[in-house]
Amino acid sequence: MLIFGHPWIESPRFMKIFSIEEIEKIQADEIVLLEPLNVSIDIAKYCKANDISFSITVNNIRDAVFANALKANYILCQHEQAIIIQKIADDYIFDTKILVVIEDEKSIDNIVRFGIDGVIFSKAIVQK
């Protein structure tokens, strides 16, 4: 299981960005976070074309399928959506990893039971 943002585990921060120009301000050890896909499609295409690690917050299955097709490294979603999206990701062998946004480590117990790829603590998400 992938774990981002826990104090015991060193991990990159996920930086919310809203323009291609903001990507230049991202550090090498940070991951671009886009949301939502319908608004950030041009940035996602830019990241794909330039081999920039990026993640996308999704709210439905369709956006998850598109995020994988765009070669997003991670999909961030809520637990209920992650259960469904993870099954689809497993069936279609997504390269994109599914992460559930959590507030505390107690949530991990429930998430791991569903075979979700990983979790990201909300404090690991930064808006510039």
Please tell me about this protein's structure:
The longest helix is centred in the middle third of the chain and has 13 residues. The radius of gyration is 14 Å and the shape is globular. The chain is α/β, with parallel strands linked by helices. It has five helices and eight strands. The termini are far apart. Strand 4, helix 3 and strand 5 form a beta-alpha-beta unit. It has an eight-stranded parallel beta sheet with strand order 1-7-6-5-4-3-2-8. It has one domain: Aldolase class I (TIM Barrel, Alpha-Beta Barrel), CATH 3.20.20.
Describe the protein's topology.
Elements: E1 2-4, E2 13-16, H1 20-23, E3 30-34, H2 37-49, E4 54-57, H3 61-69, E5 74-77, H4 79-91, E6 97-102, H5 107-112, E7 118-121, E8 125-127
Parallel strand pairs: 1-7, 2-3, 2-8, 3-4, 4-5, 5-6, 6-7
Main attributes?
35% helix, TIM Barrel, single chain, 128 residues
Overall spatial form: globular
Tell me what the CATH architecture is.
Alpha-Beta Barrel
Q: Kindly report the name of the CATH homologous superfamily.
A: Aldolase class I
Reported by name, the CATH topology is TIM Barrel
Structural class, by secondary structure, is alpha/beta
